[in-house]
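Marked as duplicate of an earlier ticket. Keeping the data here for the record.
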Amino acid sequence: MRDIFISYTHKDNLSLTDEELGWVDRFHRAIQVRLTQLLGRESAVFYDSAVMRGSDRLTPKIESEVRDSKVLISIVSPGYLRSSWCNAELELFARTSVPEHSTAELDTKSRIIKVVKLPVELALEKQATVDLSDVLGHEFYQMDKRGVPCEVDAEPPDHREFVRRVNELAYDIRNMLSLLGDEEGARPDPVAPSGRVVYLAETTSDLAEDAERLRRALQQYGHTVLPQGRYAYGPDYAQNVATDVGKADVSVHCVGSSYGSVPERQHKSVVALQYDIAGDEIARRTEQKKPQLKRFAWSPPGITADEPLQEEFIARLRDEATLLETPFETLKTSVQQALEAPRAAAPEPVKIGSAAEAAAVTVYLVFDSSDSDAVKPLDDWLFENGYEVLQPIFSGDEAQIRKNDESCLVECDAVLVFCGAAPADWLRQRVLDLQKAFAYGRARPFLARGVVVADPQTTDKDRFRSHSVVKMEMYGAFSADALGPFLTTIQQAQATAV
């Protein structure tokens, strides 16, 4: 019995010279070798190298191979979907192949895997004899700087990327064969399902390898990782994302240097869109008082955007203090710890003055030396209600002052900036400085970032606005009630904290 039948149109295997192998020839060799290594036995992969296709009718040999194959790989391209021969292979596999293996875990249609050699229109996928629009897909092309699609090839300079994508595909097929009862082949180490679900968002090519490493690590712990395949970039893209995010305990968004593709009828890249959909899910669960979604946005240290839209997106994440710029191993540890933590329910409203929610919360209280006296009632209230308070220093040389500030930004749980008599440009500069915390080595988001504006009241303070901080007015005498938005933000973050 065959493991795989490769269905393709000969147009996608044409070579420029008689001596050169075609793209499908090289793909067949690569997937057969890698699958053999993963199974621990010789893999059985069939493709019609003779290309004897003079009519629309399948030969008896092809019919027999299709019927006896456990998995069918469709090398999808515009030519493939317009080929009556290829459509006949699809229809035959869906109708007759190994019916005893059509289990609840893996029905016949789910055993068709798309290898997308060139992008195709969604309508064309839907018109195939088997609707391929919702079939598990692996892209084997990438866009150049002009937006022109090019196949990822086994030859340089794409060799490393080609091997990575073949490896990802081979792992999926190995797991699929295991579900189908591959008694001869090696299987993944049996791991009891954890019951936890991770949504691993689509990323750009520069971080695809890191995302795949994270997927494999999570699966080894028994976690379910969604989505099970790439979504079609059609009008249902956002809804498909929202459906899977709604099942997750944790979402992870790897943010690279490129902006990424924009799905049909959308105005954001897939990376930005999925991040915002996860934010909508957080808001929905909070409103409905349901167990929270923990969202991680991650970039490796020193990430630099290579286009303006991505630069704006990264700046937004830094401004919101949600971007973790850490080594990959730190991300992996943080996600695993979040999954090991008990599921937390949505928070109840904060009762101002209660120390119960302050347990173990360290607040970095930032102020200018000119406000040392004015900030004292706020400092006292935080300490008396159970918060640990860190403060800036004003004596010593510039290096010592800066080192204390960096240390406090890394170690604290939340930041509260107090602005009273400070110079006009001091407040905005201090808020901008908060973005540097992750460059200093901070490895987790802040529970909250707040700003208290106090006397004297000025036009600059009234006009101050920022999406990255909670602004509170405390003109006149100190009022604990004014701190409500800041404390509520801390409590909401604690509900999903690692």
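See parent ticket for discussion. The radius of gyration is 28 Å.
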